[in-house]
Amino acid sequence: MKVIAINGSPKKEGNTFRALSMVGAELIAAGIEFSTLHIGHKMIHGCLACGKCAINKDEQCTIKTDDLNSWIGQIKEADGLILGSPVYYSGIAGTMKSFLDRLFYVSGSNGGLFRQKVAAAVVAVRRSGGSSTFDSLNHYLTYSEMILATSSYWNVIHGRTPGEVEQDGEGVQVMQVLGRNMAWLLKMKEYSAGVILPPEPQKKVVTNFIR
Known about the structure:
Elements: E1 2-7, H1 15-29, E2 33-38, H2 52-56, H3 68-77, E3 80-88, E4 91-92, H4 94-109, E5 118-125, H5 130-143, E6 147-148, E7 156-158, H6 169-192
Parallel strand pairs: 1-2, 1-3, 3-5, 5-6, 5-7
Antiparallel strand pairs: 3-4
């Protein structure tokens, strides 16, 4: 089994990376492969709402000027996904937001590439805005019918300079509990495969309020 973590911070080894690594350490201890994909420093274009991914059905975004399409397959093949972001003005960092909008649009337009994968969101913040950012990250996961791993509190850890999050005792514990719970869910899903059949995907009903 494999989990991919997305580091949406421009800093390669800042507090977002450290928080993800705390979760990853628990997954590795449970025998699960873990890797981090750093996208926060990349030039990633926002979604153009062209709808071509829904027309082409090729699991690709029509924008070819960045590396998003090379990442889609990696995430599709993983058993679990963790989204990690710092807080920018009480929200998701801009590059991470562009990445998520396009990634999950392609997924949804191609039959739900990430459906029923185990997932979680992690936020690193200096002071406030952590809960709203955590909530926004979870919107992508819940919309996509992913299985959410939870912890003993919201998955937010506090620190300003790289490494300060390690002084947030409660935050560290939250990340550790999250990793253990995620490993448990992944193993339950693996052990029940072929025994308990997952629900079949449903054709989406779309209702517009203005006609």
